[in-house]
Amino acid sequence: MTTHLKGQKMFLAGEWVNSDRSIEVRNPQDNTIIDLVPAATAEEMVNCVEEAIEGAKIAAAMPVHQRMKVINDAADYIQQHSGKFAWTIASESSKTIREATKEVGRAIQTLRISAEEARRINGETIPFDQSPGSENRIGYFYRFPIGIIGAITPFNDPLNLVAHKIGPAIASGNAIIVKPATVTPLSALLLAEAFSLAGLPAKVLSVITGHGSEIGDALVTHPAVRMITFTGGLEVGEEISRKAGLKKISMELGSNSPVIVLEDADLEDAVESSVSGAFWAAGQNCLSVQRIYIQDSIFGAFKTQFVERTNSYIVGDKQSELTDMGPLITEKEAIRVEKLVSEAIGKGAVVLAGGKRSGAFYSPTVLTDVPENCLIAKEEIFGPVVLLYSVADLDEAIVLSNSVNYGLQAGIFTKNIDLAHKAIAKLDVGGIMINDSSDYRIDAMPFGGVKNSGLGREGIKFSIQEMTEPKVVCFKLSSL
């Protein structure tokens, strides 16, 4: 497929518009320019929010069957043009074409589930006569849309994570403004095109491209925006929470995910799942396997198989079906990972595989003997690096797993149901995968974490709960 620098427009309140300035979208593999997108100004973002005020009224008035049809028609469009969507993801992001194709499939599923959940935004009857003196009262509560939602999305899943914001927002009758990652805006614009062609009324959806430092505050601080949903780094999340004011905030802020492998585990399965979990999307994944705690008796065997499988990974051209892993999103990010590894090596860590950088590429890397005082042991790596540790038993593994200030997901490999339940009870995480790595999720489950891993939960049904509010209705009757 040939790339043409035609220059994209952003989607402002249902209209495709340009801005006076543009941003170059580059392929991280070779730094070539793929396309240009507008660099919106703060004034344009404010204008977008003002248009969305009317859009929120339009969205709230859409009957459920219309919301469902629009979302399903958008999903149909993606399905019919899946090759174009996958190529775009693999061009602007770090993902290989195989990874991108899977993301397209997940985005379609995300929208299908959103359409289904639109019919299940239910309330409940309330027995008011539980309170003495209220025998002549009956009523219920129902959920109503919150209004305007501001969504800020990351580069690592440039289509599906945008779908996770837009799908539930439209399903629940809200207007939504998306500010996609500056380095990967093209997939979000394609999704806006899908919704536009699906007949979504104007002003309900906007996708505004630009630099977060210039337009972020205008979105986050505007009083008409009633909720901010953000997926990204901890520092930015903390800054948003300080600036947002009195509005709902939902955040997924990353992790330092542990996996525990006990001596009764299926070793081959544990190795394969954990290697995939560590190096999917070049490790730029909030669920990425970072720390693996292996019981002493099988540590040697696990290490040998894990390193062998890591060394077999094919790193290279993202558009090749044979490639297992592509580059990081920028050379700057690859240099950051390189420095983290170098610090660990300087403090005594041993490199078992990888540890080499070429431009934005960083080879799949396995470390052992990593001291606890290294940044790479405590913080989110967001790169293709995994740390192996030997532990005496599950108790030690749990203590070490909980020793960082993140808690998104964890994995444990064991055939012992008692030990599995102990891990479930004791691990401080939002999700635990049994006989799977931490890097597993489906789009319908509640997704989120504890500690510095975020606030609230995503997953379509649960996002809809965040994007709506309950309204209580009570009838006082003269007689029953």
From TrEMBL:
The keyword Repeat does not apply. It is an enzyme of class 1 (oxidoreductase). Keywords: Oxidoreductase. Its EC number is 1.2.1.97. One of its GO terms (molecular function) is lactaldehyde dehydrogenase (NAD+) activity. It holds the Pfam family Aldedh. Belongs to the aldehyde dehydrogenase family. This is 3-sulfolactaldehyde dehydrogenase. It comes from Planococcus antarcticus DSM 14505.
